[in-house]
Amino acid sequence: MLAFRTIIAFLAAGLLANGAVHAQQQVKPGVVIFATGGTIAGTAKSSIDTTTYRSSTLEVQSLIDAVPEIREVATVTGEQISNVGSPDVDQSILLRLAREINRSLADPGVHGVVVTHGTDTLEETAFFLDLTTAGTKPVVIVGAMRPTTAISADGPMNLLQAITLAASRDADNRGVMIVLNDRIGSAFYTTKMNTTSLDAFRATEQGYLGMFIGVKPRFYYSPAIPRGKLTFNVNGVNSFPKVPIIYSYEDQDADQIDAALRAGAKGIVIAGSGNGATPLSVRKRLIELTSQGFPIVLSTRTGGGFSTRSVEGIASGIFNPQKSRILLMLALAQGADVPTIRNYFHE
Predict the structure, then answer these.
(1) 39 catalytic, yes or no?
(2) Same-domain status, 186 and 301
(3) Catalytic residue of the set 39, 116, 119, 133
């Protein structure tokens, strides 16, 4: 009888152990969604309206509830940071995002973070977060090119893919990533290159990090950090110095430069023609300001290539005007001088 009881106890213990292992295997990665608004939260009166819809009408719980498959891949919680179109994302939203993301990434129960965002300035927020969030866990920025009411709305699949990516161990150590249209891009390099098409985001020279097969992420390369990538701590930052972007064109004069200075600009980014070029009248003013130690960054309006022009200021290198502005803004907020800023731009 004793031996029989021993066998029963042994079998019961084995079943309990197997059950515990099975339960442990069923625990899903924790993913936090920070919602900011944009087309992915937008609605229209017509199912064929993909351009004149109202953005930022749905909140984060509605986005989660619309894709029940999310719960199969992760334990998801959501927080509404803002509900605005991406052109209205401001310093306070950026700073709150960076701080909340860093707080979440420090939580052992969180494997990754997803930010839903409008696409117009998505690359700027993604680049900002790439420079201001720390750690090895994945941070994924996702948007949509069509509102939720459109016949072929891309937001639900984009969101599911983004959450799957944030929950994936293969996404660790890859920095902030952008997900749209079945593609995975590095926030450091990716930019929006089309106004309305689903494949609006690309990194022309650098390529994508990977793609999705259904909802399964497939990477082309092992994790790598972009050359010269910096990290800025914004915990003590309450606001950023004013840094406007001035677009260069034929027959331009220096009036916009002087207007920016009167408005309180602490640095200026030039979206120059070709390799950061400006007309002679503008060039003379830029050289004068540069000689006085005022930070001028010369980028290009072409949409691609390196900017190497540095006679009138600091060459932006690989960074387009909008990303140059983010980097210069962060550098000035840290009190960096012009020689240090030159190094930040890899000149």
Answers:
(1) yes
(2) no
(3) 39
